[in-house]
Amino acid sequence: MVVDLDVLEQNLERLAAYASKHNLKVRPHTKTHKIPAIAQMQMQAGCHGITVAKSCEAVVMAAGGLDNILVAYPVFGEAKANRLAELARDRQITVAVDSLTTAQGISYAAAKTGTLVRLLIELDVGMRRCGVSSPEEATALAAAIGKLPNVRFAGITCYPGHIWNRPEEQSAALAVVSDKIDAALSHLSAAGFECEIVSAGSTPTAFKSHMVRSLTEIRPGTYVFNDRNTMGVGACERSQCALRVITTVVSTAVPGRAVIDGGTKTFSSDRLLSGTQAGFGEVVEDPTIVFESMSEEHGQLDVSASDTKLCVGDKLSVIPNHVCACVNMHDRIWYHRNGVVQGSWQVAGRGKVL
Q1: Which domains are present in the chain?
Q2: Is the pTM of this model over 0.90?
Q3: What is the C-alpha separation between 289 and 299, in angstroms, rounded?
Q4: CA-to-CA distance for 69 and 53, rounded, in angstroms?
Q5: How high is the pLDDT of residue 152?
């Protein structure tokens, strides 16, 4: 797994320029890379905090010197809540919640520790995965949070991950998201609750975030590397995909086929959600080669439409479908400039699922 540092830095600068233009803060989701050094690069590019999914990821990022951490995931369980409460001794910790049960667990842990954790109420704006469904539910939960010790209601959050239109075709879907957020804000305000933070974000919608009227911050993750999904939905160009998986051809014995030494244990089995919705990655050297299927260690290529004559030992670089899941399969990422390797990063958050 290799990353082009120049492309990575350009991706960070591109989003920073957009956010500055539209007066939005950036709190990138570090689940994409799980590497504190890259999170520090994001902070140096102007981000005001970071996002993680799991409490153990928060621990890794805090150990790497990161502060102002949002856990954008419903944290349940005493050990997990205790981790976050401990981090809140010297870090600003915020957690997204959509139930009183979750809020109570975090409150209990923070009270034992004598720390304060901020809470964001998650709204379901169409993904139908997590989040309260109505302004009334959001307001009732905010009122309940207000009665708990050592936690503070700080605002609302949502994830428009259901929007897979091309950026130029996102206006209608984003208008629905904007209206749902405004309805919640209005209901909360009428009940005396003001929202310091209105947080949302995904990479496919990142550069149209200004169309959601009340946002204060955005949380894209994949943008740091980009991938085939991002490219397929038109949210980036191929030249903006910073990460490649370098593979070796290990078999050409079957006519019209070739096998590379990377399967589901290298790429993950995530399907393509955008574009053609077919295949498991793009072969950079020859996109007419179809990365058709995988088993654990075998990546099976259909080369029947390709003019490239592959031989055992040939190297092929692949842009993965979903870079976040792919990174989590690897211990280390190498980085280079102009093809000259300059070093590597340990994927410090790999396997941190608690």
Answers
A1: 2-224 (3.20.20.10), 238-321 (2.40.37.20)
A2: yes
A3: 12
A4: 10
A5: 98
